[in-house]
């Protein structure tokens, strides 16, 4: 077959894309696929990108060259010089400008016929009506909190009586040479909250080690960060992006390290610990972002089976440190998922714990990670973080034991957290 | 991360330079040494076809600051290019694709130099170009490619010992292959930090024994604070001593013995405190199975020791001179040099620092011994002591890529050739029979075969044409059902790229190029196939 015999539904420019998206292949589910409808459908589709950083820049490029015409992007951040080694839509002159705006303008100029709408704000600034207008949401975020928020919001939006209320969520993440991409069909397949324990936070160093027996450079840096800063307040507010502030912390950490003969405190390490910096490179972002957008194209066109089809694989893990390894598998939905499950999740507790200790446990448990929980039992409010008047009223409960508060083995508690406004996490107390 | 800090230079109090700030997130992965290697690299891309995967690869190398690149491509930009290649725009139509992409790539990083060839339409002479260019560090080329141009690149690679990367992306499928000119050793493999702990508790040296004895001589008489802050290394050494007293002087060696030993340590923890236990004893208990193990020679290092050198230049390379010395060290002591890092553990600051210094001092002595052996070797005086130190520290994780040198195919070919492909294909088909029964992932070799069959095809091919060529490459493979499907999928693409698949593949290739240029982390051996329908890849040695 000569090249001009292969049909190109939307003109010669998109012929390579159209060969794939408008023509069934051996793996295409023919019942779900209508080649003639693909181009008009994708032309009218709205897709949302969350994050215009390392992954976001790549995602915008990839979607624009995958036939998506109406793209929105949300990012509250401005451009920093350390972004330039991978966030390829930004130049040195853009430092300080909004990421979403610069990225949107760049891709719009480069790829004719694509409309990109930037939103220089937080995802939490929008309500369900805003998210309802999109058919697919692609996330390229570095924060677990933001992922959990959009996940919970999308799960809550699903309404059997409302057409198109189920929005596929495609999520990517990277760290160094490693990364993952996953597809979530809210309420139908395993959600971000179901998978939370796969992304457990790093164990914190005990405060007594930092305060009295430092051994590692990190302990000295944490001391400067947590203790020295608070004591000396060299600047009114700690700005982790201000080199002067980091230099102050570095010097304090260095003094402490010298006192204890601990080697290895450097400026870069100080900055790394204080900002919790994750190494990031262009190539890994390219891999993960493209994987996400490949899934978006398959979902939008049905031209090949995507990740996230119920009962099929929904998660790809990528590792490039030692050769290249991908593990693509099905993460199972959890019935006791606090966001998308129906059952309360078991929570092992000791009846002698104070409510304060329970609050702490909710913060560190890998499958909970609720930093500012407000707690109700079946009978009464136990502790509320907001508003201040109620907080004050319920604060004495933090010192009381669970038994004293009348809680029993097998009792359900509801937990809310300002990070997930709409969701109540249900836990069933299991006394040791 | 605890380095073997041999000399303490006073740290500089000034912040990072602008360049360090720009590259901060990657310097945390490959450090200044890796960055320097990247900045001195000179890359060549020989581009073809729909032309995107090579440019996407370069993007991921220009951003982190590769020194210099050149794109060879005689294509003139047409409409279809703008639908797949991000590094072209409306103004590129009708111009040389190599020039337009080079210019847009250079915008990404002012520190990178770039050039293109040919300068005008219809004048591509690869032979002349190669003959008149500065030597390339690595060459990447994309399929489809003219067979005579491929032969020129392979000849260049052999002559200049230049690694080659072949890349093919079409529709949902891609693969790339790395051809290294000879055995490729890597010292700085960046193993997981948790894997690198090597405390030598079964073969402690006098200073370490003395340190533990001093701390534990009156272990039962220690107050709660002292007992709760004994470092777990001292706890384990102490109870190993006790164990040997009741076991004819032998250490716990079987799994059952180690479990019994663990119980002994567990029972020694004090529980009459508010916490009901001791964190340092918990650490000791958790460390038993991992640390109470005689050190063995890792198979990857054995491969280094057993490697038969063929290239004359290997005789003078620092790596092989050090490897010989490490081997002598191993023969003499029956163990590798002590790496010298100590994991964090609950104990007092001064005790930990003392322990750390004991390990560092031993590591220093071992490095000195190896260094003396190196310097006694012809050519050894030229070896950088820092290289010896790094090798000693990472000895257990040193890796030799491509140990069979220039491929198993003989006659100077870069890979195992047609025989190897047939053997691997047969093996993969056989494995698939089991994989189907165990629901395991199926081989991606059908994808490789279908793409490989179009290596020199510049027009859309039908699945029948592709299958016929597969049958010529590997007898009978064209009858395999999954190969038939892969051929249909490749035919569907008609030689065109999907941007996502090329962006993804360009990311993987760039990672591998960085690993080879920086000689850090571990590159693939030697072929990686990606399936954009199943969203997974497979690495296979062909």
TrEMBL record, chain A:
**GO terms assigned for molecular function:** ATP binding; NEDD8 activating enzyme activity
Q: Name one GO biological process term.
A: protein neddylation
One Pfam family name is ThiF
Record-level GO cellular component terms: cytoplasm; nucleus; protein-containing complex
Question: Which terms are listed as keywords in the entry?
Answer: ATP-binding, Ligase, Nucleotide-binding, Ubl conjugation pathway
Q: Does the keyword Oxidoreductase apply?
A: no
**Part of which pathway?**
Protein modification; protein neddylation
SUPFAM superfamilies for this protein? Activating enzymes of the ubiquitin-like proteins (SSF69572)
Specify the E2 binding domain's residue ranges. 347-432
Show the catalytic activity. Answer: ATP + [NEDD8 protein] + [E1 NEDD8-activating enzyme]-L-cysteine = AMP + diphosphate + [E1 NEDD8-activating enzyme]-S-[NEDD8 protein]-yl-L-cysteine
Enzyme nomenclature, EC number: 6.2.1.64
Query: Record's family?
Result: Belongs to the ubiquitin-activating E1 family. UBA3 subfamily.
List the PANTHER family.
NEDD8-ACTIVATING ENZYME E1 CATALYTIC SUBUNIT (PTHR10953:SF6), UBIQUITIN-ACTIVATING ENZYME E1 (PTHR10953)
Q: What does this protein do?
A: Catalytic subunit of the dimeric E1 enzyme, which activates NEDD8.
Official protein name in the record: NEDD8-activating enzyme E1 catalytic subunit
From TrEMBL, chain B:
* Any GO BP annotation: protein neddylation
Q: Keyword RNA-binding, does the record have it?
A: no
Q: Where's the THIF-type NAD/FAD binding fold domain?
A: 23-533
Q: Name one GO cellular component term.
A: cytoplasm
A molecular function annotated in GO for this UniProt entry is: NEDD8 activating enzyme activity
Q: Which Gene3D superfamilies does the annotation name?
A: NAD(P)-binding Rossmann-like Domain
User: Which pathway is this protein engaged in?
Assistant: Protein modification; protein neddylation
| Task of the protein | Regulatory subunit of the dimeric UBA3-ULA1 E1 enzyme.
Q: What is this protein called?
A: NEDD8-activating enzyme E1 regulatory subunit
């Amino acid at each position: 077959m000569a090249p001009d015999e292969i049909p190109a539904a939307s003109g010669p420019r998109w012929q390579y894309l159209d060969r794939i998206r408008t023509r069934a292949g051996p793996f295409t589910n023919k019942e779900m696929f209508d080649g003639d409808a693909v181009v008009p459908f994708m032309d009218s589709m709205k897709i949302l990108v969350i994050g215009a950083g390392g992954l976001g820049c790549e995602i915008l490029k990839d979607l624009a060259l995958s036939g998506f015409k109406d793209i929105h992007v949300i990012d509250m951040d401005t451009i920093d010089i350390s972004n330039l080694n991978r966030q390829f839509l930004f130049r040195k002159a853009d430092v300080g400008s909004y990421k979403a705006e610069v990225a949107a303008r760049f891709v719009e100029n480069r790829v004719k016929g694509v409309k990109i709408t930037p939103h220089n704000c937080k995802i939490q600034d929008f309500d369900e009506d805003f998210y309802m207008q999109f058919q697919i949401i692609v996330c390229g975020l570095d924060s677990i909190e933001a992922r959990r928020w959009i996940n919970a919001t999308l799960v809550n939006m699903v309404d059997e009586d409302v057409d198109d209320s189920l929005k596929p969520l495609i999520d990517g993440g990277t760290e160094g040479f490693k990364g993952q991409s996953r597809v979530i069909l809210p309420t139908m397949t395993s959600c971000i909250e179901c998978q939370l324990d796969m992304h457990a936070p790093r164990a914190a160093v005990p405060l007594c080690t930092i305060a009295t027996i430092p051994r590692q450079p990190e302990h000295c840096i944490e001391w400067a960060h947590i203790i020295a800063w608070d004591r000396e307040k060299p600047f009114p507010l700690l700005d982790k992006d201000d080199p002067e502030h980091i230099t102050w912390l570095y010097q304090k950490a260095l003094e402490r390290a010298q006192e204890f003969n601990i080697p290895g405190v450097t400026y870069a390490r100080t900055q790394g610990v204080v900002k919790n910096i994750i190494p990031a490179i262009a190539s890994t972002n390219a891999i993960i972002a493209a994987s996400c957008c490949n899934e978006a194209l398959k979902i939008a066109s049905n031209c090949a089976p995507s990740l996230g089809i119920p009962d099929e694989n929904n998660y790809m893990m990528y590792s490039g440190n030692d050769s290249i390894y991908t593990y693509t598998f099905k993460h199972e939905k959890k019935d006791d998922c606090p966001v998308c499950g129906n059952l309360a999740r078991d929570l092992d507790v000791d009846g002698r714990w104070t409510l304060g200790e329970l609050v702490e446990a909710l913060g560190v448990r890998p499958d909970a990670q609720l930093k500012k929980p407000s707690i109700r039992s079946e009978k009464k409010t136990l502790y509320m973080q907001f508003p201040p008047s109620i907080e004050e009223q319920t604060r004495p409960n933090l010192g009381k034991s669970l038994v004293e508060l009348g809680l029993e083995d097998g009792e359900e508690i509801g937990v809310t957290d300002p990070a997930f406004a709409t969701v109540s996490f249900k836990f069933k107390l299991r006394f040791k | 991360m605890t380095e073997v800090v041999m000399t303490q230079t006073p740290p500089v109090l000034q912040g990072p330079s602008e360049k360090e700030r720009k590259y901060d997130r990657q310097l945390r992965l490959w450090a200044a040494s890796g960055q320097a290697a990247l900045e001195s690299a000179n890359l060549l891309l020989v581009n073809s076809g729909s032309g995107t995967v090579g440019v996407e690869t370069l993007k991921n190398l220009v951003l982190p600051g590769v020194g210099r690149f050149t794109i060879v491509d005689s294509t003139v930009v047409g409409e279809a290019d703008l639908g797949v290649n991000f590094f072209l725009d409306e103004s590129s139509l009708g111009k040389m694709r190599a020039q337009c992409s080079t210019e847009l790539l250079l915008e990404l990083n002012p520190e990178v130099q770039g050039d293109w060839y040919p300068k005008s339409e219809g004048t591509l002479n690869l032979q002349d170009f190669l003959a008149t260019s500065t030597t390339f560090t690595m060459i990447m080329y994309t399929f489809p490619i003219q067979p005579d141009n491929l032969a020129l690149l392979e000849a260049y690679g052999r002559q200049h010992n230049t690694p080659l990367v072949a890349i093919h992306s079409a529709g949902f499928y891609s693969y790339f292959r790395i051809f290294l000119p000879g055995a490729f050793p890597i010292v700085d493999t960046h193993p997981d930090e948790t894997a690198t702990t090597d405390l030598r508790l079964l073969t402690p040296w006098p200073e370490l024994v003395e340190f533990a004895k001093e701390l534990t001589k009156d272990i039962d008489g220690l107050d709660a604070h002292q007992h709760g802050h004994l470092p777990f290394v001292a706890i384990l050494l102490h109870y190993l001593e006790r164990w040997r007293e009741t076991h004819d002087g032998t250490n716990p060696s079987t799994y059952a013995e180690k479990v019994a030993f663990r119980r002994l340590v567990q029972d020694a923890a004090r529980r009459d405190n508010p916490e009901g236990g001791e964190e340092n004893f918990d650490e000791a208990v958790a460390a038993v199975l991992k640390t109470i193990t005689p050190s063995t020679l890792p198979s990857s290092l054995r491969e280094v020791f057993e490697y038969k050198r063929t290239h004359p230049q290997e005789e003078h390379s620092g790596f092989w001179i050090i490897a010989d010395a490490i081997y002598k060290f191993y023969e003499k002591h029956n163990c590798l040099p002590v790496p010298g890092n100590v994991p964090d553990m609950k104990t007092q600051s001064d005790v930990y620092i003392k322990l750390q210094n004991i390990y560092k001092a031993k590591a220093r002595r071992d490095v000195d011994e190896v260094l003396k052996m190196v310097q006694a070797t012809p050519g050894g005086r030229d070896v950088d002591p820092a290289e010896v130190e790094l090798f000693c520290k990472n000895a257990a994780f040193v890796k030799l890529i491509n140990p069979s040198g220039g491929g198993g195919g003989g006659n100077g070919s870069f890979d195992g050739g047609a025989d190897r492909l047939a053997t691997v294909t047969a093996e993969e088909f056989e494995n698939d029979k089991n994989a189907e029964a165990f629901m395991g992932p199926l081989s991606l070799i059908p994808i490789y075969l279908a793409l490989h069959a179009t290596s020199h095809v510049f027009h859309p091919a039908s699945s029948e044409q592709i299958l016929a060529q597969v049958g010529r490459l590997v007898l009978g493979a064209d009858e395999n059902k999954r190969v038939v499907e892969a051929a249909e999928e490749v035919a569907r693409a008609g030689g065109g790229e999907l941007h996502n698949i090329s962006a993804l593949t360009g990311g993987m290739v760039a990672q591998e190029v960085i690993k080879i240029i920086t000689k850090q982390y571990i590159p693939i051996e030697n072929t990686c196939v990606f399936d954009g329908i199943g969203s997974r890849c497979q690495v296979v040695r062909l």
